[in-house]
Amino acid sequence: MRKVYLVGAGPGDPDLITVKGLKAIQQADVVLYDRLVNAELLNYAKKDAELVYCGKRPGHHSFNQEAINHLLCKFANQGKIVTRLKGGDPFIFGRGGEEAEALAKKQIPFEIVPGITSGAAAPAYAGIPLTHRDYGSNVAFVAGVTKRDENLDEYWARFSKVDTLCIYMGVKNLPIICEQLIKHGKDTSTPIALVHWGTTDKQQTVTGTLATICERASSLENPSLIIVGEVVRLREQLQWFEKLKVYNDVNAITG
Q1: How far is CA 191 from CA 9, 89, 207, in A?
Q2: Catalytic residue of the set 3, 13, 29, 34
Q3: Is 46 one of the catalytic residues?
Q4: What average pLDDT does range 82-102 have in this prediction?
Q5: Which of 90, 98, 128, 169 could form a disulfide with 123 if both were Cys (CB 3.0 to 4.6 A apart)?
Q6: Pairing between β-strand 224-228 and β-strand 191-196 as defined by DSSP bridges
Q7: Catalytic residue, candidates 23, 56, 106, 245
Q8: Is the model more confident about 59 or about 200?
Q9: Which of 23, 106, 163, 169 is the catalytic position?
Q10: Is-catalytic flag, 202?
């Protein structure tokens, strides 16, 4: 019976996928997976399952979005169970909505399987709570890139009063983001953190302020999540994952 599962694979740590997401991988005839999906999850697919890489990175796409939509419909119309495995959550900056639209237009049955988005997981693994009674009571998930015709001032002005910002896909535009946030009311001393490859063994976190972060994080590339707000101050006492990595590495060396 044809069906498509749009599955959030989580932020990188393979243990963070949901039980339902794992079941969708296990029963799939075809798995279309993205660049940020941990390859370990593909080991749960059936031996005869077809694995199709649909990864995208800046400046290079294996398939454009229209081609991916076409593949989902094509495989489903062959009577196959298709699992579209996407990093994070399919409906949070994952273009899952566009893929669901394409399936709905073709009257192909589908299910959405939510995943843990990097906007929630990366700060948690860096020891940064997105909300805290003493530091911030609201949070916004924000795209760090805008449409070509979007007015930057209008875009960033709407976030000036939000306590905590989680900014996706913003590393390349970090200087512009900092400039805009300061321009629209954020203090230059506002804490900010970048979490690179959050929840994985490659995780690296750099902190600073809106005035200093561009210099401090100049070596970081995508994928990195940007967190802006007073909650970043808590990292100093709450960071755990990177300390755990160091502890495990030392134990491995000393036996």
Answers
A1: 30, 26, 7
A2: 34
A3: no
A4: 97
A5: 128
A6: antiparallel
A7: 56
A8: 200
A9: 169
A10: no
∠ CA 111-115-118, nearest 5°, is: 145
pTM of the model: 0.92
Report the C-alpha gap between 73 and 2 in whole angstroms: 10
What's the distance, CA 98 to chain centroid? Answer: 17
Q: pLDDT per residue over 22-69, tens digit each? A: 999 999 999 999 999 999 999 999 999 999 999 866 555 578 999 999
Amino acid at 76: A
For the chain, the residue count is 255
If one counts every other C-beta atom within 10 angstroms of the C-beta of residue 20, the result is: 14
For 106-240, where are the alpha helices, taking DSSP H only? Answer: 118-125, 152-157, 174-183, 213-216, 235-238
Distance between CA atoms of 1 and 77, rounded to whole angstroms? Answer: 10
Q: Is 1 a catalytic residue?
A: no
In the chain the beta strands, taken as DSSP E runs, fall at 3-8, 30-33, 50-53, 56-57, 60-61, 81-86, 110-113, 139-143, 164-168, 191-196, 204-209, 224-228
The pLDDT value recorded for residue 251 is 60
Q: Which residues contact 185 (CB under 8 A, 6 or more apart)?
A: 160, 161
